[in-house]
Automatic annotation (TrEMBL):
Enzyme class: oxidoreductase
Protein name: 2,5-dichloro-2,5-cyclohexadiene-1,4-diol dehydrogenase
MF annotations from Gene Ontology: oxidoreductase activity
Family in the record: Belongs to the short-chain dehydrogenases/reductases (SDR) family.
The species this protein was found in: Mycolicibacterium vanbaalenii
Signal peptide span: none
């Protein structure tokens, strides 16, 4: 398969940590150039230094601080990536997260809005401006990082699942619109993946055991598992694939969402978890 990304330039949002950092490392290891974007400049700098050490195939790495919930900043980082080598070949959009957890009846509405802003609006801003450049360049590939929480209900996950479901649908709409310009758009739904964001879940014995019971393959996902698929979707080997949202979850999507009651009942109480305020 043609998985070389040599002489191509990609934007990786959320590139300072977790899945974004792993995706950027995989891009560079495949010969591509990766522009890391994120809000934390220290994390971006550390990730860039780490990735430079594996740039044996000619790929390069740079970083540009940006908050994707600000459209002007999203447009700026897309422009900087394009200017680097004169074109934008693709994007791995990994910037995302959540400020909400707990029963819907107790969700902080400002935190809900912030989560939707990051996962929905931030995705749209990056896609909007990146797609313009890829269309001008004759094509490209956009990969949005979603979550199994978008397809399998995750009780008490707050805005995260609904906002990632919106991301999934945006990927499909964009694929339908942009296919005529040879721009492919796909999503990836990771299951439980070892990152800083899910550390509290992995540190809870009850919740970790429930994840194991819900996952056919007997291990936790690694960021590199997601990065491997992202590189495939960016490459020519995926040239006839668009509009798909693909699970990288060890089979978890075949069963049910996790039971977080063991972690959250001590905080909200059994009655609180069923909506009592």
């Amino acid at each position: 398969m043609l998985l070389s990304l040599k002489d191509r330039t990609f934007l990786v949002t959320g590139g300072g940590s977790g899945i974004g950092r792993a995706a950027a490392a995989a891009v560079v290891a495949s010969g591509g150039n990766a522009m890391l974007a994120g809000r934390n400049v220290d994390k971006l700098a550390a990730a860039a230094t780490e990735i430079e050490a594996i740039a044996a195939h000619g790929g390069q790495v740079r970083y540009e601080p940006a908050d994707v919930t600000d459209e002007d900043q999203a447009a700026r980082v897309v422009a900087a990536t394009t200017a680097w080598n004169g074109r934008l070949d693709g994007v791995v959009h990994s910037a995302g997260g959540s400020e909400t957890i707990g029963p819907l009846t107790q969700i902080d509405s400002a935190a809900w809005r912030n989560t939707v802003d990051l996962n929905v609006n931030g995705t749209m801003y990056v896609l909007k401006h990146a797609a313009r450049e890829m269309v001008r360049g004759g094509g490209g590939s956009f990969v949005g990082i979603s979550s199994i929480a978008s397809s399998n209900t995750h009780r008490w996950f707050g805005a995260y699942g609904p906002s990632k479901a919106a991301l999934d649908h945006l990927m499909m709409v964009a694929a339908d619109e942009l296919g005529a310009s040879s721009v492919r758009v796909n999503g990836i739904r990771p299951g439980l993946t070892r990152t800083d964001m899910v550390a509290p879940i992995m540190e809870s014995p009850a919740v970790s055991e429930d994840y194991r019971a819900c996952t056919p393959l007997p291990r936790v996902g690694e960021a590199e598992d997601v990065a491997n698929l992202a590189v495939f979707l960016l490459s020519d080997a995926a040239g006839f694939i668009t509009g798909q949202v693909i699970n990288v979850d060890g089979g978890h999507g075949l069963r049910r969402g996790p039971d977080l009651s063991g972690m959250l009942e001590p905080i909200f109480g059994a009655d609180g978890l069923r909506g009592v305020v």
